[in-house]
Structures are given as C-alpha cells and as structure tokens.
Amino acid sequence: MWNERGFDAIRPADGEFCQSSGHEGDFVSVRRPFAWKKGKYTYRLTRMDRETVGDKPYTWVGAFVRVHATDENIFVGALRFKGENLMLDGKVAPASAEAVYPKGVPDYADTAVKDGSLVITVGAPVAGRDKRRVKLIDATK
Fold first, then answer.
1. What is the distance of C-alpha 104 from the center of its chain?
2. What pLDDT is attached to residue 116?
3. What phi and psi, each to the nearest 5 degrees, are found at residue 84?
4. 109-140 burial: b if 16+ Cβ within 10 Å, else e
5. Residue ranges per structural domain of the chain
6. Of 75, 77, 87, 122, which residue has the fewest beta carbons closer than 10 angstroms?
7. How far apart are CA 51 and CA 48, in angstroms?
8. Would you place residue 46 in the very low, low, confident or very high pLDDT band (cuts 50, 70, 90)?
9. pLDDT per residue over 77-115, tens digit each?
C-alpha cells in the first residue's frame, strides 16, 4: 500500500514477513513464502474487520491464496486502509496484463492467456525467448 509507513497498518500472517520502506516512495506490504506447484491458484482480497483510529474509520483488507487442488485458503496478510466503504474504482477497468521477463534473469517462467485467465508456468526452462516484454491482454482493443 502506497503512502503509508506505519507498522500499525500491517498484519502479516503468523511468523511471516512484512515491509515498511521508502526506497520507492513510502509503502507497506505483507509477504509469505510459498512452495508453488503445478496447479490452479486464486489470489483473493477480502474485506476483514474495521477499526477506528483517532476519530477516523479504517478497514483491514486481507490477501489470501486458494489452492484449488486441496481447497486450502492461505492467509498472506492484511493491510489497514483508510475508510469503511472501500470499493475498487474505475481505474482498474478495463484490465490489461503484460509479462516482463528481466534481462539476465534465468528463463524459468512463462505466461499465456487461456480462456480469459492468465496461466503462469514456473519451473521449466523456456528456450528461445526473444521478447522481454509481452502484452498479454490489451484493454485498449
């Protein structure tokens, strides 16, 4: 979350990681290592509890990863946002997606669009990659 530096706005999963930094502009984040395997996963943001700080309302938003093979929901962590009626605004639509494969990083990930979803394959070498930036979904078309 940008424009925040307080650790009181971060709720990592038990024993996991968080960050508060200013090296790219002020931000806070939560992180959790995960042993990815072949399969289908869904990343979900969920409104959680609310609290009042001073006289202003705040809402905690949690990040979860669902492992479809086991129906397990893994809590990544949560961030505290200002306000109580949070909604995604029009800035997120229309959606677009781009894969960036940094030069000098081993090519062990590939991304494609299948039935309107992004499919990311990780772990197998990708031979002959000639483009380092690939537009996968172009919302302007």
1. 24
2. 78
3. -125, -15
4. ebbeeeeeeeeeeeeeeeeeeeeeeeeeeeee
5. 7-87, 92-137
6. 87
7. 10
8. very high
9. 999 999 998 887 766 656 788 899 988 888 999 998 888
